[in-house]
Structures are given as structure tokens and as C-alpha cells.
Amino acid sequence: MNYITTVGERTYTIEINDENHVTLDGGVLEVDWHPLPGQPVYSVLIDGQSYEAYVLPTEGGYQVQMRGLLYEVRVEDERELRLRAAMELDLPASSEYPLRAPMPGLVAAVPVNEGQTVDKGTVLIVLESMKMQNELKAPRAGRVAHIRVRAGQTVEQNQTLLIVE
Amino acid sequence: MNYITTVGERTYTIEINDENHVTLDGGVLEVDWHPLPGQPVYSVLIDGQSYEAYVLPTEGGYQVQMRGLLYEVRVEDERELRLRAAMELDLPASSEYPLRAPMPGLVAAVPVNEGQTVDKGTVLIVLESMKMQNELKAPRAGRVAHIRVRAGQTVEQNQTLLIVE
Amino acid sequence: MFKKVLIANRGEIAVRILRACRELGLQTVAVFSEADRQALHVRYADEAYLLGPAPARESYLRMDRLLDIARRCEADAIHPGYGFLAEREDFALACEAAGITFIGPRPSAIAAMGDKMAARNTVSRAGIPVVPGTEGEGDLSDEALIAIAPKIGFPLLIKATSGGGGKGMRIVESQEDLPGLLHAARREAEAAFGDGKVYLEKVIHAARHIEFQILADAEGNVIHLGERECSLQRRHQKLLEESPSPFIGANEELRQRMGEVACRAAASVNYLNAGTIEFLVDHDRNFFFLEMNTRLQVEHPVTEMATGIDIVKEQIRIARGRRLRYTQAEVRFNGWAIECRINAEDPYNNFMPSVGVLSNVLMPTGPGVRVDTCAYPGMEVTPYYDSLLSKLITWGESRAEAILRMRRALEEYRLIGVKNNIPFHQALLDSHRFMAGSFDTRFVEDRFSIDDTQDGREVHPEVAAILATLVAHHQTQLSAQLVQRGQRDTSNWKWIGRWERMQR
Amino acid sequence: MFKKVLIANRGEIAVRILRACRELGLQTVAVFSEADRQALHVRYADEAYLLGPAPARESYLRMDRLLDIARRCEADAIHPGYGFLAEREDFALACEAAGITFIGPRPSAIAAMGDKMAARNTVSRAGIPVVPGTEGEGDLSDEALIAIAPKIGFPLLIKATSGGGGKGMRIVESQEDLPGLLHAARREAEAAFGDGKVYLEKVIHAARHIEFQILADAEGNVIHLGERECSLQRRHQKLLEESPSPFIGANEELRQRMGEVACRAAASVNYLNAGTIEFLVDHDRNFFFLEMNTRLQVEHPVTEMATGIDIVKEQIRIARGRRLRYTQAEVRFNGWAIECRINAEDPYNNFMPSVGVLSNVLMPTGPGVRVDTCAYPGMEVTPYYDSLLSKLITWGESRAEAILRMRRALEEYRLIGVKNNIPFHQALLDSHRFMAGSFDTRFVEDRFSIDDTQDGREVHPEVAAILATLVAHHQTQLSAQLVQRGQRDTSNWKWIGRWERMQR
């Protein structure tokens, strides 16, 4: 089966041939791949070149952190690719975005109101944690729908703080 | 239930009262005991004194390694103590002792013969491992019964090499 | 002379102080909050006592409990570390009253330097230049500050009178922004220090933050151990420090002049023990007194590496009444040292703090590498305290060697399970301005982005693609196997799932 | 000038060399046996290639494969490390023939110093004192050796002509023991080096083993970096080294004289690159040339800590044809450094090697501490190679400070899952003779026991008793719960067991 793998603006066609070989855009590479025990860290030798990287699953794919650089990678097989293409035609351009607490903390301020339209980058919540005031910003333009917390409130990690439509 | 715990020549009577208290020879101590995750290492605060130790189970009890010293400890509850006392009366003074390979290696020499009587400390097998020739010695006096390996042979860890009666 | 030291702190600095005590043959007492029972400082100490719940005000800031523990376990000295109670005159006084040696300056010096306005007045009187601002004008109202601001000129800085570590600090670009930012700064200062007093200070353009480490004994001898370059900051938090400063470099005359002023500033408050004089240095090498930190500094190791002097041990010796072991002429500077602060922050997501369990740690080691850390495999990073996980320090015969060592050490360092800013440091060390030593206190925030630096560096998107694809492929196969196994014996499903998760 | 270095070694020394290459901006190539795929040297290198199966003769000793890999990946230099092929003239010649720079001495110097008898002859001719023995007498038969022995006098030493690291070495106390020990020594030498040739050497009473590090460039400049005290040995394996030597101490005249002789010995074979001259020093400070090691030494870090010079980087610079960067007068000695070799050996069971998986590692860090290691959490310690896990090095302004640092570092070090000799070092550092610096090469074997030293130290049998009892109690409770759970649902038994085991 072919995988279509995207890194930034570049797309690769990758086939896993066997335990020690992959085909990358038509060329066969010798690959010696080792997960390190108990860690999301992988050591890989590709035609003798040695790399070690964190590979962390994200919502849309993987983050690969390697030699001090971060790569956002999406991996899809052919079936998934067709499925996604079909879905994207059906979906509205935007949908609800829940702003979640990236860590436990104290809500220091809620500088927006329900119903307010916000730009990408507008500060939605100020969360205090690790002695720092951290500004949580809108990832895209939209409208503040439900605000579920108030200033002074303690929140758990991943708790939904408000919704941007 | 009382435990009778022996360290070298000293014997202690220990009772586990609850999660934070033990009675040692009649005196109550405050104990805050934490196994460290995934390790045979324990952090303990006893009336505020902080200790950290390896506690490794052995055949007859535990090895406690702490602040650079090794303690051989035997822990028995009252029932076990009575049982052992009874058994020791029945058992003959000595029994078979199997000499096992402490690590994988190559048998470099077998300097004893079957039937030979040996003293405590007599070299029974020379095992080569980690570039070193390691002499495996008789733990007590006895007679070499079965020799199960020969010089030049590769052996696995824990493989029985010979029997001392 | 004291024999048992209570360390009124946590984290890497508690471990650092414990080590110094142990190497001097002193008994050590750790204190801990409920969140820190398994912390290294508890495990390494001779004794350890619970202070209270995780929040600092219920544990590490509880003077009464600290003194009570010290009395009960007969500790005859207290080292406060940095932060928490380190710069609290009342704590130093309370130690004194209890007959316990406070390993730090006299309470009067803490007080004199603790109020930033009073401090600026004191050193001004001693003939030391200070940055223009509302120092010495007392606790001004918003209205008064707004009136004075145009005379100082923009941009200017709002600073908390009781401040430190960037809390309650704001840059003001124009008169219109001033009222709103005054409000925000006072709110933050109030929350952080229980004191909303602020003052204004002129922003020095292209300023360097350069500080001098000083040591002073009870006989009044004061020496300095050279400077530290601390201009690389983000939101007034230092990120990378070095000693010497590339800005001073081989300019011995400037170093000597600043060092002398630093010693004079310390002497002006009859200073005792270790302290740090912070200067702002402008483009023309004019320098201004900024403030004095009356405590051990986070970045003290770069000075230790460049001088060979163990500052914490010197603190203890001074507190025991010993004379300084070095004259100024005997302090020898050798090579170059750099420190990177490794924080539990996500450099790809606006430096958001990260919490969780450090499942694995692999530290860089080898020649010229030092790590001061509280991190160990299995440690839980909690939101209660600051995000400093580790200080990575390298030494080299030259700045170039120290930088190259730092690069390879950062590349080796693995802290698995919690996001951290190692990639930020890697990008910073690769930037041309850092390598050239030409940066000021605004550099990181205004002219540096971790994303920009990806351009000039060797990239391997195809390797990232292959790795992610292998991981995805492997997980798909694993799920397929799980489903098959589950079909054979559905009653085991729950256990298989658990077991498989642990295998990953 | 070469740009890509193949490191023909494994373990801590391969990591050490990789770090030096990386800090000099050189590309690195690792090689590995099937047992070492996940080793740090493979993970840290830019490229890595499989050599063959685990046994050294099928991997790290395969010259043909090493040169083949070097050619294929276009490596233009090879660093041999220590052991394996480091002192093989034929390997150095083969590199030369292949146009690859051998980072080490010229083949002729390896040959001249590699045959111990020839080496003793060469330096004797240069006027350097050697220990009395059968040096220069050629390959003598057992009969000839037995005849000469009484003239040398007992006790004497049988040494392998091709020897090193104590292999093929025996102490002979009397004439009667000689035939049997000759046989044993030849057998061991034959197994280790493929060469059963041996010679006899007088045993120097109360001898110290003190060696000098030298550096030599292509222009013929030779300098020394001071001495290393290596008398603490067991079965001729060094266990703890320091620089300077407490025996030489402040005797600058002796240090200078020995250093000059060391440089002269190196010059006598037209030496290039880094090397070590080993001396035996008797009670009256007479010193005798023992041998020259024509390679990087395991214990080189103590010299690096005491001089600030990175010896591996100097090796590379010299191999690139550079002139030495220091004159003898520019080499400055500062403070004291000690190294403990942490081996996978059980100090409570006759130093039996230990194998297994290192489930957890917690390294000591902080000021004055360096760790050179190949150990990482999850590493499997195999029986194929030597037992060296880690070298723990501490530096102090004085010997006392270095010792106190080493004590606290040993106390902090955790290597879980494999038995190791840290308790041995802790006992050694507590012994009065070590502290006084009064020991010779026989001290560890003849007059030191890890059990004896327990007497003088603080013991806590009651804590050991409590801890073991708590563990036993906990496990009893756990088993009881397991049985109850199993009764509820026996079909899950297998999975529960597995899961519980993993929880422990």
C-alpha cells in the first residue's frame, strides 16, 4: 500500500516494502528503524545516515522533532486521501473551535465577551500557571460563542474554556 | 502481625501499624515510604531521616544497599519462623549445591574432576566473560558430583555447570 | 559554627545547595510540599520534613513552619536559595531572632536593596550612575506617573517596586498606552508580591543586561568574580547567560571599571555574602546601575565555570565568619562558559508551560559539560512552581568552543514526556547574531523567531516523512493485530489493551 | 585535511571521540556489532554501519570491513580509540595504504613500543632506567626463564610480550611456582593476543604506578601534561586514577624530571600524537620505565580536568598536521581530578561481571562532576565486551575537595538493573590509606576489603530491617489481592499476572 505523506508543502509517496526497505518517490532506500524502549523516540539508519527523532501523534498527523527542527507531517493512505478529499467538499469552511486549557491553572482574565467577533491572535483567556501569565489566543478569526469560565476560577488541563465559532 | 527481621547478627521485631507507622522493638516510628516508579529503589523518611536504598529479593531474603553499604536481611513472620525452626531439625546438615553460571560466557577451564573433594574457595570453573577470566569458587566444602560442561563450551546465564554434594 | 543547614527551597537550586553542604561535611535538611515528596532534594538530604500543600504560600513561603522545623531538628543555619523567601528582610530577621544563621546578606542590606527606589537612591549617593526614572520619588499615583512620563521620554518601562523576575513589568511605547499598562502592571505586581507599587524608568536603546557577581565577607572585603552577559531574555526572563560577556570581551579596562563600581555599590549597603549588581549598558558602553540581587543567582554556574570558584561553598564559608579566600588579584578568569535554561515550555506554541511526567531523561555529559537539574525519570512536572527543569552549562577554552559544546550537548539532551525549549536554544545558537555576539535585551522578542532560523539550517523533510510513515504503518498493523486477538478471546480485551499500551 | 572521521570502537570511548569530532565540526561515522545497534555511539553519529556479529573478532577487530566501510562512506580518517585495533601496527599501515589518516602514532612507533622487550631496549639505549628483567633477551623458553629467574630475584612478574591490560600477567613468589604460572600466563596471552611469548620482570616493592601523558606533533615538538597516579588496581586493572599524584604532590623537581624522561622516551621512537609513558616508582622515588601506551588512555579525563586541555581534540589537530598549541611552559596545572571506573561487576561477589538491562540511570551532576559513559536507560549490558559502564570524574581546587565531591557523586549515582562496583569505590574513598594518599599497586588486593571498611562507617541496620520488612509486607499483600482477584475471574489470570508484574 502506498502512503501519501506531506511535510509542509512537500508531498512524498512512500511504500513500506519490508522490514528494511522503503520506496520513497520511486527510489528504494535501506532503512533500519528502531523504536527506543518506552519512549516516543526512534533511531533510524537510512542508507547509513543516522537520525534520531521524537515522533508525536497530533490531531491531524505527527510532529517529528529532529536535530533541533520541528516537522509537521501528515500521513495518509490512498483510501484516506480520497475520503478526505470527498469530506472537504461537504464540510463548511469553518466549524466550532473549543479553546482548551493547555495546562492546569488559574484563569487570570477573560478579556473577551460572548458574541464578540475576534481576529486570529486575539487574546481570549489569560491563564496563570508556573508563576507566569499565559495568553491563550484565537487560532483563527471567528465569533466567541460560549464562555465557560470566569476570572479567578481554577481549571484542569484540557478543560474547555470557551468556544469560537 | 509481627515480623522477625534479621540483619547480620541483629534481630528486630517489627510491626506494620498503618501506612505511616511501624513499631520497631516496641517503639513507634513515623515512616513515609515511597517506592520509586519502575525501580527496586525506595525512598523512606523515618522520623524525618531521609534514606534511599535498593531492596533486591534474594533466595533467603533481601539485599538492602544503602549509603554505600550492603545489608543482608531476612524477613519472617511468626508462622514462617516456627516452620523454619521445625524444618531445620529435619534437614540434613548439607544438601546438593548446583553451581550456576552467573553470566553467559565461555568455559575456559574445569580444574576439578568428578568425585574430587573440595574446600570452600576451591576454584571449580574458570568462565571467560567481558574479556575477563572469572573464577567460580566452591561456596562450601563438599564433593564434586556431576560436571555438566567442558572447557571450550559456551554457556547461558544460570545454566548449571556442576553439582557439589 | 553551624553544622546543620536547612535548605528553604526546592528544585534544582535545593539540589545545588545540598551538594555544596555535603561537600563541606555539613548535615542537610530538606523541606518539601505535598507535590515534592519524591523530588531529588528530598531524596538527597539527610533529613526531610513536610511543609504543607503544593501552593507555595502554603508551603515554601511559610516562614513559621520553616523556623519551627529548623528548631525541632536543630538546624543552626538556613540557606534560602533564590525566589521564595530569599529576599525577604523579615525572614532574615526572624532567623536572626531564632539564633539561626541566615546564609545570605544582613537584613538591612536586603531591605536597602529590596525597595528598588531606595536602592537607586542609595547607590546614586555613592556616585554610581542609574537609569533616569521616578526613582526616589516615593509611591506615586497613576496621575503623577502619567504627568512625569513625557519628561523621561518614551519608550519607558513600568517596574514593580517589590519586583523581580519580570513580574509587574511593562514596556510603554506611547503616552496613550500608559494608563492601561499601569493598571495591568499593578495588578500583576499585587498578585505576585502583595504590593502594587510601581515606578517608571527610561528604556535604554540597544541595551545590554550585564551583571557582576560579588562576594563580601564580614571584615568588609568585597571582590567581584567578573561579569555575566544576560541580555538574552524573553518577557524579562533570562534564557541564556554567558561569562564573560562578548560585549565587554577583551576590554579589560571596562571590566575593571564596572567591577569596581559593583563592589562600591555593594559596600554602600555594608553588604555581606554573595550578591549580584545588574547594569544596563548602552551602545556607547555607558553603564547604569539597574538593581542589586541580594541572593544567589540562577545563572551563578557560568561564573563558577569561568573562575573555578564554587560560589555556594563560598556563601557558606562567609556565613561561618570566614575571611574571603581570594583577593581580587587572585581571581583568575579562564575560558568561556554558557548556560541555557531548559524550561518546561513549548517553543512552538508561544512558550506555553507544559506539565506531565518525564518518562525518560538522557543527559548530555562529557568534557566541559555541567548540568544542574532537579529532573529525573518519573518526575512529575506540576503547575505550582516555575518551569525551570535544568540548567545546561558548557565551558570552552574560547567562546567558539563553548558554543560548539553547547550545540552538541543540546543535541544529546533528551527530556521525554514534557515539552521543553531545547529547540529554541538550538535555533538561537545557530543564529548569526548570537554567534557574532551582537544582540541586546530586545533581540529575542523583536528580531528572533524559531521558525525563521529553519531557513539557514540543514533540513531533512524526507527523513521526517519516512519516520512518520513508519510509525503510522506500525500503529495500523498493531491495531489490526489487537482486533484479531480480541476476536479470539473478547473477555481478555480490557487486559490486552492495558498491556499493549504499556508495551508501547 | 580530513573532514569525516570513522570511529573504530564502541562504548564510552566511541561516544567521547564522537563528541570531540562534533565539536570540531567533523562528520562522524560509527560502526557497530549486532549487539550494539541501539548504543549511544550509533545514535549520536552522523552515519552508522553494521560490522558483523557481536564477538569482537567478527566485528570490531575486522580490519577489512572497517576499511571497506571507510572507503564506501568516504571517511578520510579513522580514530581507533583504545583496545581493539588501537595498538596494531598492521592496522595503522593498512589505513596509510588506503590513504586514510590514522589518528594516532606512526606505525613504526606502534611497532617499536608494542613489543615490550624491544621497547625496553630502545628506551634503555636512550638512557632511561628500566625495571630489571629478561628484556631484550628474545623469546626465551620456559627452561631458560626458569634458569634466569633466581638472578632477577623473587617476587617477580611474568608479562606477555604482546600484553596489555593485565592479560597474561602473573606474580611469582617462589621458584617452585614458576613452571605452573608460566604455563597459565602463556595460555592466557595466547587466548588474548594470539601470542604466547612472555618475559620476566623484577617486582618493585611498595611500587607506585605513575604515568605521564605526552603530546607530540609532526615537527618533533613533545610536551607532557603532567602525571596520573594509577596505583589503585585489581588484577592489573586500574580502578581509580588521579592527577596529580599524591606521591609526587608538591615535589615539582621530581615531576619535571619524570616529565622530561617521558618526553625523551617518546622522542626515542619519533613519536607522533598522544601517548602515555608508564613508570614504576619505588619507595625512594626511583622511577623505572615500564611501557609506553601508544594510544588514548581510558583515564585521560583526569589530565583534561587538571589542565583544561581536551586531549582528543588535540589528537585530531595533530593528525591534521597542526603544530602543538601549547609549549611546555604554557601547560598549567590547576586543582585536582579523580576518576572512578564504574564497572558492571559485583563488589560483594569477587567482582564477578554482571549482565542485564539497565532499567534506570540517574547520573550525578553539578559543579566539578564529569561523567563519560555509554550507559542509558534501557541499555543491555552484554558479556561480549569489557565491563566498563561509566567513568565518573570529579575536580576540586584541592585533593580533599575532589574526594568529597566524588563521595557525594557516588552517593547520587543510580545504575539500576546491573550490579556495579560503586560500593567498592565508596569504601575505598572512606579508607584512611586512600585519604592519606599512602598506597601502592598491591594495596587493593592485599590490604583492602570492602567488608573491613564497614566497621568505621555509620551503619543503619534498623533502617535496612524496616525497609526490607515494608517490601516483604507489601508483596505479601499484593499476592493476597492477586489470589482474590483471580478467584473472581480465573480466565484473566494470565493477563493480570503480566500486568501486575509491570506495575512493580
Looking at this protein, list some descriptive labels.
heterotetramer; A: 165 residues; mainly beta; eight-stranded antiparallel barrel; four-stranded antiparallel β-sheet; 16 strands; 8% helix; 57% strand; C: 504 residues; alpha+beta; five-stranded parallel β-sheet; 17 helices; 22 strands; 23% strand; globular; disordered C terminus
Query: Order of strands side by side in the largest beta sheet of chain C?
Result: 13-12-9-10-11-14-21-19
- Counted beta strands of chain C: 22
The order of strands across the largest sheet of chain A is 1-2-3-4-5-6-7-8
Strand content of chain C: 15-25%
Count of discrete alpha- or pi-helical segments spanning 4 or more residues of chain A = 1
Shape descriptor of chain A reads: elongated
Residue windows where pLDDT falls under 50 for at least 5 positions of chain C: 486-504
* Low-pLDDT residue intervals, each spanning 5 or more residues of chain A: none
Oligomeric state of the chains present here:
heterotetramer
- Main β-sheet of chain A, in a few words? 8 strands, antiparallel, barrel
Give a count of the beta strands of chain A, DSSP E runs of length 2 or more.
16
